[in-house]
Design a protein that fits this description.
Length: about 650
């Protein structure tokens, strides 16, 4: 009977890959045939010393012809080699093979010249390694013999393994589990290792980790999980596993304790960010989630979140230690789109101007067709996790083919947002908007210019479901979203209408590196004729996020000057194949279609078609998109080529 802890079982498995001259000695209890002692674990590049034969007779220099003796001596002294392992095909796991490749001296020097002494030492060391790995998987009687096969022209070192019988667990005893009461069954199931399982070090170590994790999920913040003790019976070729557990007392969440000098958040705001409430059963993953969320605010450079004993025996408080991050950011952006022109944007943000998380954002846009000055107040995690309260004032000058507008707006919204760190299935927003806009367009029937001032009040609402697997680069799933904006407009007299838009997209992988993506967009405005609606509030189509190949907002009805005038309904379709080429690049052929209609309901007739090819560069923060498209049935004045550059996929 040999008794040893799980630390011995997994010792070899915890050894990191080593360099050629930095090998980690194996436990002395492991043995191979022929025996390998601690004195044999020498530097593979040590000077040649008398060594025993390792399986084949090496050439005898004394018998070599005189005129070829120098060349023969060089071959004998140093030659290239290969190696192979025999006898483990039916027992070795992929993890065993991976670890052997990472730690093997023979593998590290495979193909390099070596002398007989170096080969012998490397073979013995790898034999010891292989025995240790086999024992880690439950083959305690494993033996490995070394030999050299010289028949293939160059020496091939052969490690011949005899794994022996697989040892299995005769009994598994977890002492102390009864103290967990009615939660003991869940803890036992989490451990998972049971009678008659192989004595596998990886499986036992993983079971210990699962039990520790489950204890935290079941409400035991201070559970003590001992090291598994394995007793091996070589006569019966079995083993017993004993584990001591002290779950402690199940606890409920108490109060938050936040370091007072953090200059970022107080305990009340940390409570708003947390997904758990005082009085709820302790749940360890909730602490990990809170830590990620605190760092995601960008106001915290590091966060330590840990349980501490509370005032009562069944209470656990949450101790939070925060280190602040720089709260200010200056950002810039450059862009270009056919029909949209060049555009430069700069912004200054103070993310904690009004603590907690009350940000002020100053934003300016200077472009060939757009100028904007905007100030925004944004309060993240407002009265709850992932809720954003926004208020903004903006003054803009916009030049489009359809209109020129000078607009002043005041707006506010409350929304549940998604982001690349916490992608949400459901997002929503409710808002209010007051707009004064002076707009110049032409009379559709005559082409005569006109100028009108609109005063508009709107209540925009949205609801979106995201069932895709990635926010910026989805490869499977679908998305469905709806937007509704009831609006009251004053132009001489007051009248109302409602703008509605539905977007749907789906993503299907066709192969490992090929994704088929499709999109549909439908829109309608009911309640007022097109000419009464401000040009800036109508529907338009065409551009990089619409029908590619056409200029921005260039599709649809046109006035006598051949400029678009927008409409009351919208229909768009897109399909593209996203093919990855290499690790960081991809090509995307695409086909788009769409049109704008004067009627209040969207139609599927007289569609404008565009097609082209895109290139994607998959960066760490998402794909960078370059699309080149052409109209297939252009209208008069449409360019033959359109180029679009942006971050993220087209949809």
């Amino acid at each position: 009977m040999v008794r040893r802890g799980a630390a011995l079982l997994v010792a070899i498995l915890a050894v990191p890959p080593a360099a050629a001259q930095q090998r980690t000695p194996m436990p002395e209890t492991l043995s191979v045939t022929p025996p390998v002692g601690a004195s044999d674990m020498l530097d593979p590049n040590a000077p040649l010393s008398p060594m025993p034969d390792i399986g084949v007779a090496w050439p005898d220099l004394a018998k070599a012809p005189a005129d070829t003796a120098p060349e023969a001596a060089n071959v004998v002294a140093e030659t290239r080699y290969a190696y192979r392992i025999e006898g483990i095909d039916n027992v070795a796991s992929s993890l065993l093979r991976q670890r052997f490749a990472e730690l093997s001296v023979l593998d590290q020097h495979d193909g390099e010249p070596a002398n007989a002494a170096q080969l012998d030492r490397r073979a013995r060391e790898d034999a010891t390694l292989l025995v240790a790995l086999l024992r880690g998987e439950g083959y305690y009687d494993a033996r490995v013999q070394t030999s050299v096969d010289a028949g293939a022209g160059k020496p091939v070192v052969v490690l011949s393994a005899t794994p022996g019988q697989l040892y299995r667990l005769a009994t598994v005893t977890i002492d102390g589990m009864a103290a967990a009461g009615d939660r003991s069954a869940a803890l036992t199931d989490a451990f998972g290792v049971k009678q008659n399982d192989p004595v596998n070090a990886d499986a036992i170590a993983a079971a210990q980790a699962r039990l520790t994790e489950q204890a935290g999920k079941q409400g035991f913040p201070f559970a003590k999980i001992g090291d598994p003790e394995v007793t091996v019976d070589r006569t019966a070729r079995t083993a017993t596993l004993d584990l001591k557990v002290d779950p402690g007392r199940a606890r409920r969440f108490g109060r938050f304790r936040v370091n007072a000098n953090n200059r970022v958040f107080d305990a009340k705001h940390v409570q708003e960010i947390a997904r758990f409430q005082p009085g709820e059963q302790y749940y360890a993953p909730g602490l990990d989630d809170l830590k990620r969320a605190l760092i995601q605010t960008s106001l915290v450079s590091s966060a330590v979140v840990k349980p501490v004993p509370g005032a009562a025996p069944d209470i656990v408080d949450v101790d939070v230690t925060l280190q602040p991050a720089p709260p200010r950011t200056i950002a810039g952006e450059l862009g270009y789109g056919t029909g949209e022109g060049a555009r430069a944007e700069v912004s200054w943000t103070h993310r904690n101007f009004f603590p907690p998380e009350g940000a002020i954002i100053l934003r300016g846009v200077l472009g060939t067709q757009e100028q904007l000055a905007q100030i925004t107040y944004r309060r993240n995690n407002f009265e709850g996790r992932d809720r954003v309260l926004t208020g903004q004032v903006a003054l803009s000058h916009t030049e489009r083919l359809a209109y020129i507008a000078d607009t002043f707006s005041i707006s506010g919204s409350l929304e549940r947002q998604t982001n690349i760190f916490f992608q949400k299935a459901w997002t929503w927003s409710i808002g209010a908007e007051l707009v004064s806009t002076d707009e110049r367009d032409v009379i559709a029937s005559t082409g005569q210019p006109r100028r009108r001032t609109y005063y508009i009040a709107a209540l925009p609402l949205s609801l979106v479901y995201d069932g895709s697997d990635d926010l910026l680069n989805p490869t499977t799933g679908y998305r469905l979203g709806g937007r509704l904006s009831p609006e009251l407009s004053l132009l001489g007299q007051a009248f109302g209408y409602a703008r509605t838009q539905i977007d749907a997209s789906a993503y299907t992988p066709l192969a490992d590196k090929l994704v088929l993506a499709g999109r549909v967009r439908l829109g309608t405005i009911v309640g007022a004729p097109r000419d009464a609606i401000a040009p800036s509030r109508r529907f338009y189509a065409g551009g990089g996020a619409s029908v590619r190949g056409y200029g921005y907002q260039a599709i649809g009805p046109r006035d006598p000057n051949n400029d678009p005038i927008g409409g009351r309904s919208l229909t768009e379709f897109s399909i593209e194949a996203r093919l990855k080429v290499g690790g960081s690049f991809g090509i995307v052929p695409f086909f788009d279609a769409g049109n704008i209609y004067t009627s209040p309901l969207p139609k599927f007739t007289a569609l404008q078609y565009g097609a082209g090819l895109g290139v994607r560069y998959y960066s760490n923060f998402g794909p960078i998109r370059l699309d080149v498209g052409t109209p297939l049935n252009p209208q008069k004045g449409d360019s033959r080529v359109a180029v679009y550059v942006s971050l993220g996929q087209a949809f």
